[in-house]
Write a structure and sequence with these properties.
Blueprint: H1 6-14, E1 20-23, H2 33-46, E2 49-52, E3 57-58
Parallel strand pairs: 1-2
Antiparallel strand pairs: 2-3
Length: 64
C-alpha cells in the first residue's frame, strides 16, 4: 500500500518547535501502528507536540 499523504507532509514541514498537532483520534494520523510510531518520532525530533482529543494523549504536559 502506497502511503502518499502530501498534506500531512506539508503540515509537518510547516510546523515549528513549540507547535502542537491536534487530532481527534490517533487513527486519523497513522494508518498503522508502525506509521504512527514513525510520525510521533518525527514530531518529537522537530519539537512538535501531539494532542489526541479522543485518546487523551497530550505531549504538551508532563502527564500527557
Amino acid at each position: 500500500m502506497k502511503d502518499n499523504r502530501l498534506k500531512l507532509k506539508e503540515l509537518i514541514d510547516f510546523a515549528r518547535v513549540g507547535d502542537a498537532l491536534i487530532v481527534y483520534k490517533l487513527d486519523r494520523l497513522g494508518r498503522s501502528t508502525k506509521k504512527l510510531i514513525e510520525l510521533t518520532e518525527q514530531l518529537e525530533e522537530k519539537g512538535i507536540e501531539l494532542v489526541s482529543i479522543k485518546g487523551s494523549i497530550d505531549t504538551t504536559t508532563a502527564v500527557g
